[in-house]
Amino acid sequence: MAGTQDLGGGVRSVRVPIPDNPLGHTLVYVVDTDRGPALIDTGWDDPAAWDTLVEGLAECGTAVGEIHGVVITHHHPDHHGLSGKVREASGAWIAMHEADTAIVRRTRSAEPERWFTYMAAKLTAAGAPEEHVAPLRAARRRNLPGLNPALPDREIVPGELLPLPGRRLRAIWTPGHTPGHVCLHLEEAHPAGLPGNGRLFSGDHVLPEITPHIGLYEDPDDATVTDPLGDYLDSLERVARLAPAEILPAHQHAFTDAGSRVDALLAHHESRLTGLLALLSTPLTAWQLAERMEWNRPWEQIPYGSRNIAVSEAESHLRRLVKLGRAEVVSGSDPVTYVAV
Ligand SMILES: [Zn+2]
Ligand SMILES: [Zn+2]
User: Fold this and answer.
1) With the CA atoms of 323, 327, 329 and 333 taken in that order, what torsion angle do they form, in degrees rounded to the nearest 10?
2) Residues 225 and 315 grouped into a single domain
3) CA of 74, nearest ligand number
């Protein structure tokens, strides 16, 4: 069994496994249209995941070859991984927001060496110790996973309806988790009559029990100082204003009362920012701040790759505090040091 679920109103979900990942699975949504089913996200590129997707579509009474379009919430490999295979099997188009398509294009053309050099320089500037940065320099010749994601055929334009005959699915741009993350608003009455405005496919933007990772929009070609956490908080408010009757997220499970979930996420980030400000009464680098922040386990037990993610999360919070005028960079500091204002 592929763990498919009929959510009513011509929408089903398939639980596609993510190998070796505590998240467990991606919920791939199958939306019926007048021209055959469309998918929202596709799952991780892995043989077991592919088999589950194929089996799940059969359970939904259709087949991969019938898919007419693939709508991607964001470029991450647990969402976009199998898109290329689905397109190959069906001739379906793949649609993505242009900011994430730019990342896909870069990933496909980038020399792994350039990426490692960029990350090593970034981590050094963030105050990472030499023993952390050294393996990146040594890894230069290795290939990165997910290096060849499928290039989308269509652009998801914010505010516009997706080209799904017989359905009203509107793209809502929700940057933060990635620069081109979109939620997809199904502007149709809830099949069970729940109060609210239709249903929202929320990707990783709003999940029922976990807070999505908000890091930096890493781009070796662009030195713009972005504020992903600020983008994320704005995008959350956009979701609350939509007031959907139900949220269909890409992980975990469907839920109602979007408003309280958004409030909880806003409160979580506010209290985290306040906590960080207290730590910044002494000047700290992003690395030192990450070491002192609260994670799901002590810093010493956080594996290597997750430390990089933790540091980018620390940096996104630092940028927000700077933007709010609550912290500043100590002038001339190298590595870059921040202090509360
Ligand atoms: Zn993601
Ligand atoms: Zn995800």
Assistant:
1) -160
2) no
3) 1
Structural domain range at position 131 = 110-141
Angle at alpha carbon of residue 38, lines to 33 and 41, rounded to 5°: 150
Query: How far apart (Å, rounded) are the C-alpha atoms in residues 93 and 288?
Result: 45
Task: Give the mean pLDDT of 217-237.
Answer: 88
Task: Compute the distance from residue 66 Cα to the ligand 2 centre, in Å.
Answer: 25
- Residues with Cβ < 8 Å from 288, sequence gap 6 or more? 127
pLDDT of residue 147: 63
Whichever domain contains 244, its CATH number is 3.60.15.10
Q: pLDDT confidence of 219, banded at 50, 70, 90? A: confident
User: Ligand 2 mean position to 123 CA, how many Å?
Assistant: 24
Name the domain boundary from 264, 290, 313. Answer: 264
**Residue that terminates a domain, selected from 264, 284, 303:** 264
Q: Please give the share of the chain, as a percent, with pLDDT higher than 90.
A: 81
pLDDT at residue 50 in the model: 97
Segment 66-78 shows an average pLDDT of 97
Q: How many domains does the chain have?
A: 3
Q: Is residue 269 part of a domain?
A: no
Chain centre distance of CA 257: 21
Residue 338 Cα to ligand 2 middle (Å): 31
Ligand with minimal distance to 79 CA: 2
